[in-house]
Design brief:
single chain, about 150 residues, alpha+beta, 60s Ribosomal Protein L30, Chain: A, five-stranded mixed beta sheet, two-stranded antiparallel ribbon, 7 strands, globular
Length: about 150
């Protein structure tokens, strides 16, 4: 039997950031009927967006992939704050990765791997969600990547 997510996080040396706080009139997580939805996550430090701009023009694919991973860590932190434990996430159902893309950029799927690889590393096959990687003209506060999540809870 695989180790529970809290043990996998520890074994991988993954430290969760502080739970994100909403920057508007929305909830970071809404749980209902065995499901939880995590609001879109953009990576900020000290109140500022990390690496603002368009992917491929201002932000490298590698940096954007890392931001997708960090956004996922924020989502896990929000879930832990709301549910009480990462072990209550039974299955990652869907992840949508929005990539603020320069004209002609077509590698959004590579950026999205930053979000989903972490989930597979921690939850195994239960962390392999359905996924959409969407190129957009812009995101809130100039963020290059925003990610939202839908999970089944235990």
């Amino acid at each position: 039997m695989a180790a529970p997510p809290t043990e996998r996080l520890r074994a991988l040396g993954v430290a969760l950031p502080s739970p994100p706080r909403p920057a508007g009139t929305y909830a970071p997580v809404v749980a209902h009927g065995g499901f939880a939805w995590v609001s879109g996550q953009i990576v900020r430090e000290e109140g500022r967006v990390v690496r603002p701009g368009l992917v491929d023009r201002d932000v490298s694919v590698d940096a954007a992939r890392d931001l997708a991973r960090r956004a996922t860590l924020q989502a896990v932190s929000a879930l832990v704050d709301h549910l009480g434990s990462a072990d209550r996430v039974a299955r990652w159902l869907r992840v949508t990765v929005y990539v603020a893309s320069s004209p002609g950029f077509d590698r959004q799927h590579e950026v999205a791997d930053g979000a989903t690889q972490l989930l597979v590393d921690v939850w195994g096959e239960a962390g392999r969600p359905a996924r959409a990687a969407v190129g957009v003209a812009g995101l809130p506060l100039g963020a290059p990547v925003e990610v939202d999540y839908w999970v089944a809870t235990a």
